[in-house]
Amino acid sequence: MAYRLGIDIGGTFTDATLINETTGEIRIGKVSSTPQDPSIGFLEATARILRQAEVAPGEVEYVVHGTTVATNAIIEGKIARTGFVTTAGFRDMLEIARQIRPSLYDVHFEKPRPLVPRNLCYGVPERLDAQGQVLLPLDEDAMRQVGEALRREGVESVAVCFLHAYINPAHERRAGEILREVFPEAIISLSSEVAPEFREYFRASTTIINASIRPVVMRYLQKIEARLREAGLAAELLVMQSNGGVFTFSAACEKPVFMVESGPAAGVIAAAYLGNSVGYKDIISLDMGGTTAKAGLIQNGTPQVTKDYEVGATAKSGSGRNKASGYPIRTPVIDLVEIGAGGGSIAWIDAGGALRVGPRSAGADPGPVCYGKGGAEPTITDANLVLGRINPHYFLGGEIELDVARARQAIQEKCAVPLGLDVVEVAHGIVEIANAAMVNALRLVSVQRGYDPRDFVLVAFGGAGPLHANRLGAETEIPMIMIPMSPGITSAMGLLVTDLKHDYATTLIQRVDRLDPAAVEAAFQRWMHAGQAALAREGIADADISFIRQVDVRYVGQSYELTMPLGDGDGRPAPFGADTMAEILNRFHQEHRRAYGYSAPEEPVELVTLRLTALGKIAKPKLRQIEQAGAADITGGTAQKTTRPVYFAERGGYVECGIYDRYRLGAGAVIAGPAIVEEFDSTTVIHPGYRAQVDRFGNLLIRREEI
Hints:
CATH architecture of the domain at 75-217: 3-Layer(aba) Sandwich
Shape: globular
Largest sheet: 9 strands, mixed
CATH class of the domain at 75-217: Alpha Beta
Structural class: alpha+beta
Strand content: 25-35%
Number of strands: 35
Oligomer: single chain
Distance between the termini: 51 Å
Number of helices: 16
């Protein structure tokens, strides 16, 4: 037998998914995360699931890991001591940053502190023009002096970003050679290798992030690899990238900036895979875990990808991701809106006497009050427990016994008494405030991007997602909600249903009507050869390699671009020619109208950046079909375990609800709300006026009752 193992580390739980490649059988497991050392939770989850499945370590062929270790290192400031080398006169680039702010009238706003302090930023005499021509040769003596100074300062990693190095990397490469001569122990990142695109601050920020987290990520991944090898796992080790693909541990150690959104990306990939498997191409994914909720959009089976992303920035009510509130990176990232609304998000009373929820989270340690592990502040999970929506005796399949009285007392003391309200009213208020924040996130990835959420299916997962999904669908008028099997580990499954990916980009600013097609094709061919070589080193056969070409395009004079795909996406793009330029113009005007409400076909258009993705296809597991429900069980039947009172505001209080065992629901079964469906890793709430139907793969499809 051959198996694949996915391990996804979240803020509260570490999830494991083990798939039998021969039978398609899926085994799942959860352990508490270990924030002080995430590798401990990783190894514990691995050992537990292999032991429970009675699988020998040598039978595992792939281990795919989703992690937030890179992001957490930046947010928590636990990065390597890093130096920055740039063109003379530009050492203050990080301090100046950009002339924008996330909140225009907030006089108390402070820009994020630069990841490299000013005393470790150095300018070296050299200069290229915008065409890459040398105006001033690199001063090699000065470069040596800088390398020696960085060595004396005790830096561990160095980022090099010279002006216009994206078009001519010669000076940066020579600077790297000199640094290796005078400071051989330093870890060096060159902007021309990490992010060869124009706009020097973005390129510098991306390179600095890569440099500052490389030692951290290297130590983390090397520790995991060593312990897995000690345990007898000789499997290929892969890491989820921010773009939804995977790459090897060694590639991740070289360019960790490509994995800053590793964990959240896996959930969107899983939602796309599930949707494609059952015929739904347009999806909004909602991943609500213990710490945060993430929303992403999938159109025509493909997740939306952005290149404008900031590490450490989060969405706030009424706005998108706040520009200039984090550190920008210029690598492809699945377009997500993330908010501090997870099961462990803490409810509190602000200075004005209003009830607030999040963004602080109880996390894995101590966790919600009801866990009985020392938590004292009420959370969304505590509120759902008081409302009767969570079974205190069946949390994680009964592994954890939840304390309802303690949860009720915490809400009473911390929130209800200060507000002068009943405990149940406040518990419902906590849930509704969290719902309002998530509705805003769903609208940010749809309406704000020019899409109507009513044209999409909501796929909700994460341990807490199914508790809130029905209500969110009603608020956004999304016609159908899909709850996959084992929603609490859906992100971990997403790790196992994607391909190897390598992204390349190069800036080439030219008007489309003046392009030299041969020069553009030559640039694409260079990246295709590089991608093919990288995938070949990772063991991918030529027949399983494909390429996706894209271009960033804008009207001449615009500051920002739209990314346009080239060809029909079959993975074998035709040579760039006159027909391709006509295709670019046509698609750009259409996309500009969709995104901004207007287009100007009479205006000149320019190409800005060429992008290429090299894909290495990995065989994917297939969803298993479940047995058909018998005639006696078509409305639940033997799947109903019991009843219990559950609070629903639309019914004015507690309602006696049927409680169903999801594992006993056959295909075709229909459950009318109000009802609760329980499984090992999550609970689904079906509101009054809605019904859930089970499809052939076991997914719950929730729709409004027809009147």
